[in-house]
Structure formats: structure tokens, C-alpha cells
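Re: nicotinamide-adenine-dinucleotide structure - here you go.
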Amino acid sequence: MSTIPFDTTQVFIGGQWRAGDNAETLPLLNPSDGSLLASIARGTASDIDAAVSAAEAAQSGAWGGLAAAERGRVLLKMSTLVLEQADELARLEALDVGKPVKQGRADAVALARYLEFYGGAADKVHGETIPFANGYTAFTLREPHGVTAHIVPWNYPMQIIGRSVGAALAMGNACVLKPAEEACLTALAFARIAQAAGLPAGALNVVPGLGEEAGAALSSHTGVRHVSFTGSVQVGALIQAAAARNAVPVTLELGGKSPQVVFADADLDGALPFLVNAGIQNAGQTCSAASRILVERPVFDAVVTRMAERYRALRVGPALDDLDVGPVISARQREIVEGYLALVKDSGLQVAAQASLAPNVPRGGFYVRPTLVADVAPDHRMAQEEIFGPVQVVIPFDGEAEALAIANGTPYGLVAGVWTRDGGRQLRMARRLQCGQVFINNYGAGGGIELPFGGVKHSGHGREKGFEALYGFSSLKTVAIKHD
Ligand code: NAD
């Protein structure tokens, strides 16, 4: 526990660090060896109440009263501090989530970039004048919602905090953040950075705790005016129902079963690294993981062979060893993934390749072997359900129409990739794929800070990232003045 340089057991409310109201804590495990990493506060409904009150005070006071450019400067200062502390944040994220340190570092850099993007944008969001009846001037104002709730999962805490809290603060909202009970060290470190950067007390409050306690209290709180949720479809539905009772808007970023579609005319050398990396990054625990690879029949065998080679070369081990793949987040998540691997065996599917674990992996760690499964029918459970582990299925297809039918044929619609040199096909596919983002001849371009992101169907609704998020975290007011 001594490796964490701050008290992890506290909540952060109104600029103060203190124990949660019931003084209870929850264990935080290190996925790389299963050991106790730290204890965190088990926040309750009364902590959430205090956090919402502190946020209301900041929003109607010190934070909400700042000029937009001043708000932006605070975010830019936070960005600078995040970059200065990127190595330490990467280490904390690696210990907490089990991701290789280089991925933790990429996440810290992304957090800094979100703060830079939204800090720079804070004074560039404005309304419009509207040509209305003679004798009137009409215009619109973009105003903050007030108190915004941010319920985030464990897989990319820094990136998800950056894109949602960053945009909400830029618009002048005050935030209550409920990190996941499985991983919340960088959320606590982020609050310290906000404090050091001079963010007024109450503009950001962090209450760790259980989803069904602190999370449920936050999503149903009558003082909250917008809820941003990233997580599972099941919990997303609960959050939407809770917010509906208060007539509050929600942004839901949920799961996915995202395809990359490889046509026979594709640049296979260019595609190969994207095909595998987008499946095994963060041990496959990425909402936009490309967990389905659709390949046109003439190049099917070649693609499977080359992906299999890459799988066999993957190095899997403890996060701090900084290999290609770390453990999954928990024993429960490992059980879920192993259940799917048992299904592969029971269904007689063909395992094209499996990576080996490094010889020294600690026995208590939550490791699964990255697995590539070839020639899977599109309606098989392996090709329909989100696994959230380092497992990809490869599905053959004949022609554009079948590719589209398979790509669109799941309950999800988050992201899609298309690999083809045919310009007409690029445009047709981009228009006809049912999802929130399409990448042509790449996947996940540049981390996507500037690119609006979100889903359709069971992948959710609302958009975060890019400029679009600033509209989501604000409310439009129309003013009509009669002057003649
Ligand atoms: P989860 O839904 O169990 O938990 C997410 C968050 O919700 C946690 O903070 C949790 O404490 C909280 N929560 C749980 N129950 C709650 C309740 N009843 N009321 C309020 N809050 C509650 O999800 P998870 O297991 O942490 O994450 C995995 C899922 O998240 C996957 O399905 C994945 O695809 C999805 N995800 C989506 C995105 C995206 O941007 N679309 C990003 C990351 C993860």
C-alpha cells in the first residue's frame, strides 16, 4: 500500500479531503497479482448529498461566476500539471487497472490533451442571432446545466474523466464524479491536480463508492441537472430511468461489438497492426474494441494467418513489466472471459492462435490468454455478445452487401473500421454502417480527442469528445427582444 503517495480512503467534497460519512472503506485489488493495493472510501447517499450541495454553491458562485476565458485558463493549468505528472499517473493506472505502463502513459497524455482542448474551447462556444420578425432582435445563449454527474467505469478512468469532466467544466458546470469501485486512484490524483491548479472548491467533487449506493444516489439526485454515464448497457438503463424521474438529460456511452471490415483490395500490411491492436489493447477491455474482424473470402486465410502470427508473438504479463497485454481487471472479469473461451471449445470453433503468459506471471493475477477464433458464424454468441477481454473472432463474407448485413447485425453500434482502396465503397460503407464513428483505412484515429464519439442502438446515445460535447454539457436559451 505504501506505493500510493496519498491517502486513498477519503472523499473530496467542497475542496476538502475527509473520510466518507460512514467511515467505511472498500478494498482495491492489484490485478497483476491479486494483492490489496489500497483501500478507498465507500461513499454513501449522504456524501453524495454534500457533494451536490458543494457543487451547487460553486456553480452559482466562484466557478460559475468566472469569465469563460478564466475557466479555460484553469483547465490549461490542469493540463500542464497532468503532463508534468504523466509518469506517476501512468504508474498508478497500471497498478490499479492492470494495463501496461505505456498504455497508462498514453491515457495520461490523452487526459492532458482533453483538458487542453476544452480549456482552449471554453471561450469559443457562443449562440447565434436569429432573423426574426421586424422590430425584434432574437438570439441564443449557451448556458451550463448546473451540477453535472459523471459516473465512470474502470477501464479508462483518465480518458473518460478528461472527455466528460473536461467538457462539463469548460461550459461552467460543477461536477460530481463517481469513479468505479474497481479502479479509482487516478480520479483521486486528478482531484489533487485540480486543487493545485486553482479550480475553486466545489467545482469538482469526487465520491468513490459502490455503484448501487453512491452511483444510484448520484444518478437519482434532484440537484443534478445532467448525467454522463459510461459503462454497461444494464446499468445505463437504470441510470436513464433514474434520471427520467427528474426529467434530466443523460449521455450514455455503453458497450460495443465493433467490426473492422477488410475487403480483398485492402492494404493488408497497413491494416494488420490495427486489426490486432484494436482487439488486445487494455486486454480487450475497451468499449470500442474491434472484437469482430470481417474478412472478404479471397483474403480470409491470409488475414487469419497473419493475425495468428501476431497473437503468438504477444507478451502477456504484469502491468509494470510493460509488455503487450496485462491482466484483466478482476477475478470476475476473468471468469466471464473464460466462460466465452469454454463456449468456443463447446461449440467446436477453431482457435486460430493463443498467446502464452510470461513464465513469471504472479499466480494471484487475473490473466487470460489472448485468443483469436477463426471462421465464426455471424449469429454465434461469440460474434454477438460483448466479451470485454482479449478475444477476437474472424468472420468471412462475400461482397459489400453481406459485409454490411453482418457489420450491422448486432444489438450494438459504436465504431466500425473499413479497409478498402475503392473510394466509392468507402463512402457507401461510411453512410450505411449503423454506428457513431467510422474509420476508413485506420481505426481509432489519434485517440479521437477532437472527434465526436458515442453510439447508436445498445451502444448508447449522446456524444462526447470533440466540440460536440460542449453542446451536450450546455443548455440553449433563446432570447427575443421587442424594441420597435
Ligand atoms: P458498470 O456499468 O458495471 O459500471 C460503470 C459505473 O457505473 C461504475 O462507476 C459503477 O460503480 C457504476 N454503477 C454500477 N451500478 C450502478 C447503479 N445501479 N447506479 C449508478 N451507478 C452504477 O460497467 P463496468 O463493468 O464498470 O464497465 C464495463 C462496461 O462499460 C462494458 O460494457 C463497456 O463496453 C462499457 N464501456 C463503455 C465505454 C464507452 O465509452 N462507450 C467506455 C468504457 C466502458
